[in-house]
Write a structure and sequence with these properties.
With 1145 residues, this protein is an alpha+beta fold. The protein contains 42 helices and 28 strands. The strands form 7 sheets. It has an 8-stranded mixed beta sheet. The chain has a 7-stranded antiparallel beta sheet with strand order 16-15-14-13-19-18-17. Strands 1-5-4-3-2 form a 5-stranded antiparallel beta sheet. Helix 38 packs antiparallel against helix 39. The longest helix is centred in the C-terminal third of the chain and has 31 residues. The radius of gyration is 39 Å and the shape is globular. It comes from Apteryx mantelli.
């Protein structure tokens, strides 16, 4: 165990301890007399001394000391009762600390670092033990208080767990604490007087990996768009990495994958996530993936036990998994024996007498007159009680099924049995007996004539007649399967062993293929559990027109067109019904390309209703997330496939630097299970393996194909040649044992070869795939999917960003790199709302199905936060008001949300616009719809003597320039009016006096703290008085009936006998009345945009203010540091004084 560092004087202890290992800074010692067979006397002597002098050493005969070279003072940092225990601590020091220490400049820093690390490890060990004992851990409460005080998140930011570790900053490790919360990875360190805070949102993590560097053998690397961060020296790095991976995966799916969010209730409320929930969630996902069960299945118990396996005449050790509707068993030895028992198949669950040979046994009896015996079950009574309760719920939800169980001894056929073979009680899979159907259901069934047999049976008879050799091979296979059924079972509850895998790899006989697909996929349970469901879907969906049905109709005649079954209306109609029914069942998926090819093959080997449930099993369980808007699942598996290529075929990976080419080629392998690539008679053998082993079979077959072509691929010159090599190879994968005549592949790339290509036997290819690449477990594949899902989702986010920027960049003058950083800020502002507030009336989740520009939108409060961070027009307390007006101006459709383009366009005007563009934007901010009647800041007009019109405004000019200046200004106003008439764009409404006063107030606020503040105030006072007089003149002109189209000049008399000139005013011609464009009534005080612009242009200080160059980049840099410090949606995420040290990645 680790010890709180205490000083030890080694000089006086040499006779009691023997040094066994030594490194630069650490010594491992053994107590004399311990572990030394030849030192009996020494052992007795030291033992006596231990009893008197050092009782602690008696229980810890081994210890590790921290030494400072050149000093006689050492510190004990660890002790152990056994060699194994102390060696484990020693190895941890060598791997995590020893290579790190040389980066420090002095010995004192080394001692301080090591002691701090050991103390942190002790605290973490204590916390872990408390958690394991399910006590209320005080340490966690302390950590929570520190987390809240150090990072000051809202209460909704729930802490999941924390770890002691080092964060590497360059070549220097910073010892501290890693806090993992529902939305962020945070690190805090205060070491050697330096404080470091780090905040990384999970949603910005692009890669999580365990790696090593020149200093550390095992680190966790967190990659974000801007930086890589390494964390090391964890007490339990495997656990820490697993929790980090799970949190990143859950958060990205919750925030970036709307399709998964809606399907997974566990993502709806992130505040309910705990460390234990994450572990349970991971176990649940593994359970569903391993046994390929429906997404809705929830794992309840995992119990170590042993199952009686009659084929081996012994009990096989393994684990029992129980869920809502299933009891499953998996042997500890991988592939030895697996069993899936749907509860609807169970008749009784009984406890047997406990004996020494059969401890804690239970018997589970199923409908096929078979029983499973489990022994060595801990807490058997509670387990049986829970199973019986769930069995009762299953039976109550299937009353017809329950009635048939009660009548099972009668001769009536059993409804919905999952046995599909001829010696079972139910001959027809999933079909009700006539006595269980009511009249209405019979009428429904008669309205659509469903195919009662697989299409293969109608079209393959003629082809089989002459193939005696193939037929004999089929008979041999059927005989082997019959023998296997007798020994291992023939229902969905059969024992699944390595033997059945070998039979599947040989190819399932044509007569059994559809039935075994139903059993292996467990589609047979869905079929039996939902009588009449498919008929109802067909009734509901046929005749309805939507996008999915249009796509289906387009692809119907492209589905195996070379097969005779789909060259007539019988096959086409069946395919149409199945695809349309599924689109109606699952509108989120609807119809995706490649579903037609897969469904065509299913219809060849299964009845129509069976084919429908097989399609359900493939789309919703066996290939999750493959058939949706973005085919995320398929892309994740392509990324996993790339990793497997690098791992299994390193030479090929080295030659083909960019494996995305192979991934693009192999995408169709995964989406169509090779059905569109290989000849049909060969591809169905691949589908056999897929239904038994899941996606693992496709991965390993893909690797086998690449290995078989590795030499040619390494010699290929370009991607096109590589594509040709693989396509030619796959087109010549034959199935010599097939009893069917060969059917050409319409989807193959090269159907007519110029030169003969070698033929590959599909059975040999599948055998090689299992032999060479079959060692990857479901657990390993699921773990790789975790890692690569992060990469794929972030890749989609990058695509979204690039598409949005591509649209915005041509319309603005902001530098592309600055625009990219602005987009990141905009997206983060949207996500902050997702972190802590989901109840806003206008809040919208990220929806990847929307157009790129509309995927991220922000509301008024979020826009205000961003405006404060990046806008150059800050007005003190008036900034919030200005931001709200800007939001209303940009919110053209009035849905209370704006897109990124709106933010970019207004900032572009502020930073890069001409003066007239800036003034026009300011003008728009002070008229409707930006300015409203009930706005909080518009009720009290400014009261300032500078705005009074009781005294005329005078402008200091020399006598010689006075006339010219006056004429110049009048001409400017006339030119502006003519230019306005020439333009076809809609004229800006005139500004009322109340609006004008608000406009002036904004200008005053903008000039505050400017270096030229005094000059600007004087200039705006001058312009304001001028504009007030212009407005009054216009008001008088309208009141006197002056509505002509000519200009009216009204010069003010001289104010005094001074040399200053009076100011003229000029009212521009009044436009035709447009009640929608201007609410101003006749006779009101008004001023136009042209008046304001011309007046502002007369003051050079104002011109300089609006034309001075502004830099966006410093604002963006500051915003990245301070975005989290602003209030978010009314929640106080207070500003922190340490923000100069706070990094957000």
């Amino acid at each position: 165990m680790w010890l709180k560092p205490e000083e030890v004087l080694l000089k006086n202890a040499l006779k009691l301890w023997v040094t066994q290992k030594s490194s630069g800074y650490f010594i491992l010692q053994r107590r004399r007399g311990h572990g030394d067979a030849g030192g009996r006397f020494t052992g007795r002597l030291v033992g006596a001394l231990d009893a008197v002098l050092d009782s602690n050493a008696r229980v810890a005969p081994f210890r590790i000391l921290l030494q400072v070279p050149g000093s006689q003072v050492y510190s004990a940092i660890a002790c152990g009762a056994t060699v194994e225990e102390i060696n484990q601590h020693w190895e941890w020091l060598e791997q995590n600390l020893l290579h790190t220490l040389f980066v420090f400049d002095n010995k004192e820093d080394i001692v301080s670092f090591v002691k701090g690390k050991v103390k942190a490890l002790i605290a973490e060990e204590t916390s872990s033990k408390l958690a394991e004992q399910e006590e209320d851990p005080e340490k966690f409460r302390e950590a929570l208080v520190k987390f809240e005080s150090r990072f000051n998140f809202p209460e909704a930011e729930k802490l999941i767990t924390y770890y002691s570790c080092c964060c590497w900053k360059g070549k220097v490790p910073r010892q501290g604490w890693l806090y993992l919360s529902i939305n962020h990875l945070c690190f805090y360190s205060f070491f050697l007087g330096k404080e470091l805070k780090l905040i990384i949102p999970w949603v910005e993590v692009q890669k999580l990996e365990r790696t090593s560097n020149v200093f550390m053998t095992d680190t966790v690397r967190v990659t974000t768009p801007n930086k890589e961060r390494d964390f090391s020296t964890f007490l339990n790095i495997a656990e820490a990495f697993r929790i980090m991976e799970q949190l990143a995966d859950v958060t990205l799916r919750r925030l970036l994958d709307n399709e998964i969010f809606e399907l997974d209730p566990g993502l709806q409320d992130p505040t309910q996530i705990t460390k234990r929930d994450l572990e349970a969630r991971a176990q649940n996902e593994f359970f569903r993936a391993f046994f390929r069960l429906p997404r809705k299945e929830k794992l309840h118990e995992v119990v170590d036990c042993s199952l009686w396996t009659p084929f081996s005449r012994c009990h096989t050790a393994g684990r029992m998994y129980t869920s809502d509707s299933y009891i499953c068993f998996a042997s500890k030895e991988n592939g030895c024996c697996n069993v899936i028992i749907p509860l609807r198949e169970v008749i009784t669950i009984e406890k047997m007498e406990d004996t020494s040979l059969l401890p804690n046994p239970i018997i589970i009896s199923i409908r096929s007159k078979t029983a499973f015996q489990f022994i060595e079950l801990k807490d058997r009574d509670a387990l049986v009680e829970n199973l019986l309760q769930r069995l009762k719920e299953v039976n109550s939800s299937n009353p017809a099924h329950c009635n048939n169980l009660q009548d099972k001894n009668q001769n009536a056929p059993v409804f919905g049995s999952t046995c599909v073979f001829r010696d079972c009680e139910s001959g027809d899979l999933g079909r009700e007996g006539p006595q269980s159907k009511d009249k209405s259901e019979c009428e429904k069934e008669s309205s659509y004539l469903l195919n009662a047999e697989a299409l293969r049976s109608d079209f393959h008879q003629a082809g089989v007649a002459g193939l005696d050799f193939g037929k004999s091979r089929e008979q041999i296979k059927e005989s082997l399967w019959d023998d296997h059924f007798i020994e291992y079972g023939r229902t969905v509850c059969m024992f699944r062993t390595e033997k059945i895998r070998k039979l599947v790899a040989m190819g399932i006989p044509e007569s059994l293929r559809g039935k075994l697909w139903l059993l292996f996929s467990d589609a047979v349970t869905d079929l039996a559990s939902h009588p009449g469901y498919y008929i109802h879907l067909v009734e509901a969906s046929m005749g309805k027109c939507c996008m999915a049905t249009e796509e289906i109709e387009r692809d119907l005649h492209r589905s195996l067109p070379e097969h005779p079954a789909f060259q007539n209306e019988t096959g086409i109609a069946a395919l149409r019904r199945v695809l349309t029914a599924y689109a109606h069942r699952n509108p989120k998926i609807g119809y995706c390309q490649s579903m037609n090819i897969l469904t065509s093959v299913l219809l060849l080997y299964a009845k129509e209703e069976e084919a429908f449930w097989l399609l359900v099993a493939v789309c919703e369980r066996m290939l999750p997330d493959y058939f949706n808007h973005r085919v995320i699942g398929a892309q994740v598996d392509q990324s996993v496939f790339e990793e497997l290529i690098k791992e299994q075929l390193p030479e090929l990976a080295e030659h083909m630097k960019d494996l995305t080419t192979l991934a693009s080629i192999s995408l169709s392998w995964f989406l169509t299970l090779f059905l569109s690539i290989m000849p049909l008679e060969s591809a169905v053998n691949v589908v056999d393996c897929f239904f038994y082993d899941g996606i693992k079979a496709i991965f390993q077959l893909g690797l086998a194909i690449l290995e078989a072509n590795a030499v040619d691929l390494c010699n290929s010159k370009d991607d096109g040649q590589a594509l040709m090599i693989l396509s030619r190879f796959l087109e010549h994968v034959k199935n010599e044992e097939s009893p069917l005549p060969p059917i050409g592949n319409h989807h193959a790339f090269f159907s007519d070869d110029q030169e003969a290509s070698p033929v590959t036997e599909i059975a040999n290819l599948i055998h090689d795939s299992y032999e060479k690449f079959g060692d990857h477990s479901v657990e390993q594949i699921e773990h790789m999917r975790y890692k690569h899902r992060i990469r794929v989702l972030q890749s989609h986010e990058d695509t979204t960003k690039q598409n949005v920027l591509r649209v915005v960049i041509p319309d603005v003058s902001i530098l592309p790199e600055d625009l990219e950083e602005l987009y990141d800020l905009f997206k983060r502002e949207h996500l902050i709302r997702c972190y802590w507030e989901m109840t806003s009336p206008v809040f919208e989740r990220h929806d990847p199905s929307r157009p790129y520009a509309e995927q991220y939108r922000i509301d008024s409060q979020q826009f205000t936060n961003l405006y404060k961070l990046v806008s150059p027009w800050t007005c003190g307390e008036h900034t919030d008001v200005l931001a709200e007006r800007m939001f209303r101006l940009l919110d053209e459709n009035m849905d209370h949300l704006i897109e990124f383009k709106g933010l970019a366009s207004c900032l572009d005007v502020m930073y890069n616009g001409e003066m007239n563009e800036k003034i026009k934007l300011l003008y728009k901010l002070h008229i409707p719809p930006a300015l409203t009647e009930n706005e909080r800041d518009s009720q009290s007009p400014l009261k300032n003597p500078l705005l009074s019109t009781s005294r005329p405004l005078v402008i200091g000019k020399s006598n010689g320039d006075a006339a010219d200046y006056q004429k110049q200004l009048k001409q400017m106003l006339r030119d502006l009016a003519k230019e306005k008439d020439a333009k076809t764009e809609k004229e800006l409404p005139k500004m009322s006096q109340r609006e004008f006063i608000q406009f002036c107030k904004t200008l005053y606020s903008m000039f505050h703290e400017d270096p030229e503040e005094n000059d600007l105030y004087q200039a705006i006072a001058t312009v304001t008085t001028l504009l007030l007089q212009i407005g009054e003149v216009g008001q008088r002109s309208i009141s006197l009936g002056s509505g002509s189209d000519e200009f009216t000049e009204d010069l003010q008399p001289e104010a005094s006998a001074s040399d200053q000139d009076a100011v003229f005013t000029d009212t521009v011609k009044t436009p035709h009345k447009d009640p929608q464009s201007s609410p101003v009534t006749e006779g009101d005080w008004t001023v136009s945009f042209e008046h304001i612009l011309a007046s502002l242009l007369t003051e050079q200080s104002l011109v300089n203010f609006f034309e001075k160059p502004l830099e966006l980049k410093p604002k963006l840099e500051n915003a990245k540091l301070n975005q989290y410090s602003l209030k978010t949606n009314g929640m106080s995420c207070q500003s922190r004084g340490e923000h100069t040290k706070l990094n957000t990645q």
